[in-house]
Write a structure and sequence with these properties.
Strand content: 15-25%
Strand order of the largest sheet: 19-20-18-17-21-22-23
Number of strands: 23
Low-confidence stretches: none
Oligomer: single chain
Largest sheet: 7 strands, parallel
Length: about 500
């Protein structure tokens, strides 16, 4: 008789004192060179060495927490015996920075994109209706719904849709300061994202976030591609909807003039996202997406890592890659801001892992962050940006955002991202407009269970597919989707409700 196969485990670094269970490990089973003393669910950690109380638990070659009791070889390691604890890190600014290899233009990959009048390149061709304030949100939706119901878009096959971007703020807020500036950057960032061909900005009229003020501050002149109106000035809901639809109808033939043309991959700005992470995220999908990000940088493009609370504890790996001390210090300054911000709200940075994250095997924010940071690949960190700030550097950059996926992605799109990759282990169903979202499953189970939502299965890395090969697969999918191939979330119609600007400050 053949002997039963031992449960599979993965040791991620020679210095680790844990392995990760690829298969569920039952009590008494031999796995990772030890005999399991408790059942270890797949994606969770198994101790391979004795770890005294107070000693570090090491995964990825990095500290992910500290033992709260004596841990024996074969023990299941999770929240019951491992906890977050702050400790000093060596930021070693720029120690690992290098001159990234960038291919000459003639060797760069290409895709079919929309070249805009300002020189930027879009991967989609939307007409947007933005609300300046929640008070005009319903009117913006009514306009978009009426246009989409009318069937007129059938006459303009090169237009991907008329989409409303509405939100819950714009009034009852301070007319200056951080919260106001964030909303202003976000609104203008969406209005000028290269995936948007034309914009109608709709306000109520008396709100704090005044359209006229934004136009003055950005030097905006209205024309065929950008127009504004308010409900109060136009004469109420019905008149605003009617006149707004007339304006949108006039924009459609102008937006439809855009045609895809062959452009280099250097025109791509990739947003890197993860949500519903699990114990496989840092082993499969995140490092594979990092490999794809490295390829994009090699081809002259830009990759944006975000979600500051989810790189907490891994920021020292990014500061080592900073092109200058100033870039590294800006990242650390944002980390300190978040420590203060969460403390004022009565929380801590270790509050971030969700119940789903923990069920999937992630114990502390340190462990989650080390896996999340892998999405950023290995190239030099070229810049650190405020939320929704226009990204103006090529290469790998970081944008300060919350960890909450729709808020983080909204900031990246406002910064200019024209394509997005999103890794998930528990099964996020996120989708985005105007920027297409490519979903990467960390494990084969969730890929097969949510096949209608997932674009790429990274679970086969556990079966022997290399990180490099999976990275090339992701990179090729990015080029295909950027050329017009619909992602799964686009086929399902996601994106109308995922515009979620970060609200900072008091609501008054």
């Amino acid at each position: 008789m053949s002997r039963p196969l031992s449960p599979r485990t993965v040791r991620l670094h020679a210095d680790d004192n844990v392995v990760v269970a690829v298969d569920t490990v039952d009590v008494g089973a031999s796995a990772g060179g030890v005999e399991a003393r408790q059942r270890v669910p797949r994606g969770h950690k198994l101790a391979t060495l004795a770890i005294p109380a107070g000693a570090p638990v090491v995964k990825f070659g990095q500290i992910i927490g500290f033992a709260t009791v004596d841990i024996l070889p074969g023990d299941h390691i999770h929240s019951h015996n491992c906890a977050f604890q702050a400790f000093d890190r060596d930021y070693a600014y720029g120690a690992d920075a290098r001159n990234d290899m960038v291919l000459p233009p003639e060797l760069q990959a290409t895709f079919e994109g929309y070249r805009r009048p300002d020189g930027k390149v879009g991967t989609r061709n939307y007409v947007a209706i933005l609300s300046s304030v929640n008070c005009s949100a319903s009117v913006a939706r009514f306009m978009a719904e009426a246009i989409n119901r009318s069937g007129i878009l059938a006459d303009y096959p090169t237009i991907d849709g008329v989409v409303p971007f509405v939100h819950g703020t714009g009034c009852g807020m301070a007319a200056s300061g951080e919260g106001f500036e964030v909303l202003k950057r976000t609104q203008w960032g969406y209005a000028t994202n290269p995936n948007v061909a034309a914009v109608l900005l709709v306000g109520l009229g008396c709100e704090v976030f005044q359209i006229a003020r934004m136009k003055d501050e950005y030097g905006i002149v209205e024309g065929d591609h950008f127009q504004t109106m308010t409900i109060q000035e136009t004469g109420g809901t019905k008149k605003t909807i009617e006149q707004g639809m007339e304006r949108i109808r006039a924009m459609l033939p102008i937006a439809a003039r855009a045609r895809r043309e062959t452009v280099p991959a250097s025109e791509l700005m990739l947003a890197l996202q993860c949500g519903g992470s699990d114990g496989y995220s840092g082993i499969t999908a995140n490092p594979a997406l990092g490999a794809a990000a490295d390829l994009l940088v090699e081809h002259g493009g830009t990759a944006i890592l975000s979600e500051t609370p989810e790189i907490y504890g891994a920021e020292h790996l990014l500061t080592r890659r900073a092109e200058s001390r100033a870039v590294g210090e800006k990242l650390v300054e944002r980390i300190r801001w978040w420590e203060d911000y969460t403390a004022k709200a009565g929380g801590s940075m270790d509050n971030n892992p969700s119940p789903g994250n923990k069920a999937g095997g992630l114990t502390t924010i340190l462990e989650k962050s080390l896996g999340a940071a892998a999405k950023g690949g290995t190239t030099t960190l070229r810049g650190v940006y405020e939320y929704a700030e226009r990204v103006d550097r090529k290469g790998f950059v970081f944008m300060d955002t919350p960890g909450y996926d729709p808020v983080a992605a909204t900031g990246q799109v406002a910064g200019g991202a024209n394509v997005l990759c999103f890794t998930t282990g528990r099964g996020s169903a996120y989708g985005c407009k105007p920027t297409p979202s490519i979903k990467l499953a960390t494990n084969s189970d969730i890929f097969n269970r949510m096949i209608d939502d997932m674009d790429i299965n990274c679970g086969d890395i556990l079966e022997g597919v290399s990180i490099a090969d999976k990275g090339r697969e992701i990179f090729n999918k990015i080029l295909q989707v950027s050329s017009g191939e619909k992602s799964k979330s686009e086929e399902l119609g996601y994106g109308d409700n995922e515009f979620v600007p970060w609200q900072i400050g008091a609501t008054m």
